[in-house]
Amino acid sequence: MLQFGLRLGDDPRALVTTTPRPIPVLREILRESDTVVTKGSTFDNAGNLAPKFLRKIRTRYEGTRLGRQELHAEMLDDLPGALWTRENLDAFRLRAVDDKGDARPLPSMRRIVVAVDPSGTGGDGEGGDSVGIVVVGKGADGRGYVIADRTSDQGPAGWAKAAVDAYHEFKADRIVAERNFGGAMVEHTIRTADPTVSYKSVTASRGKVVRAEPIAALYEQGKVSHIGAFSELEDEMCDFGPDGYIGDGSPDRVDALVWALTELSFGGETIFDVPFDRIAVAPFAIPSHWKRAYAVDRRDGSIAVLWGAIDPTDGVMHFYAEHVMPTSTMTLQAAGINARGDWIPGMFAAEAPGRSKRDGKALMKEMNDGKMRVRNVPFAEEVSETVDQVNLGRVRVFSNLTNFEREYRGYQRDEAGNLSETGMLMNCFRVWIKSGRTVASIKEGNENTSVKTTAAPAGIY
Q1: Looking at the whole model, is its pTM more than 0.70?
Q2: Per-residue pLDDT reduced to its tens digit, 188-216
Q3: 157 by DSSP, 3-state: which?
Q4: Tell me, which fold does domain 276-439 have in CATH?
């Protein structure tokens, strides 16, 4: 804004005096070829300062990082306690071009995502925050690669086009966008630019620093490389300290980077590539002529149940109800389950991993004694069968199954290849997929009815 005051005269100049804090605007001024820098330490002015003051600040700050900045006018590149340092970024950086200046091919990638951090001001180009748009991939080697920074200060149509263009240019698997600003409007804006993109919205339930810390740890461990230099993104990263961001405006680029690397699930492998939004449908009344069944999992006294039904016209499985209850008596658990239809048959994998045959049989007996119609079925040893059914478009889930959605989104293998231990509904899901078509039945006496549903058509994803 200061430049608008330098419009007149033959050689307009400005004098800026400041403590050399490592903020982007000051770095930008220092990079200008016609900037003249004059430095002076506090002790150059010692003759005009009280001797007692000089003794105190020398005792307290001499030899410290803050003293170098405040007393000796040094521009320190790295913020004390910064989550990222330039030294670390440079240590693992890859060149984007070869010696001839030609673009080097990207490493082989497992997944690529385009992350969008919408601003509260919509990226309107009038001094508001930009809309962060960062492209990140997870390589076949398991490492992260920052591929491009397409951050935009345009209006909604402009930044949505930038995100979609990046999605197609890099053949990304998904666009991920924070929904705290704008809610469904963010998705609507992106889908207006291209309704075919794979889209996932994410919500910031924790502060920026808390979200950024595990991502910064990946950099410290050498698990992320920047392909080329991204000066504006890296300035934001190095201005991110334990107390937050010290730069001007909002760290839109860093926010997008964090969302991208979080989505790529480093430290684990996400099981389902199809986003939950693609299999979710609005709840509707299950027609009486559809076969139904439920799958149940019990561990440490807790119980999880998932109800499903099969559309006889296309064979698509619809999961329409869930029941999750912490430790309680079998009587209460059975009552809650039977309330949804005591005629509906149940499935339980008595010999699932982590459960002995003896314990499984005891649990089976306890459930049947509680008037639950539960049949012992095999456990789906491989999750691939369930993944295949999702990928082939043969699964729909009611959008109000919030516990299922949470487990579905977080279902992954750790670095040792072990599946999430907290996925009781996912265990039910796998059991249902494996045995549900065999076990499911219709209530005796029901007649066929025609009920219009809101389910999306089946199709391979």
Answers
A1: no
A2: 899 899 888 888 877 766 667 777 888 88
A3: helix
A4: Nucleotidyltransferase; domain 5 (3.30.420)
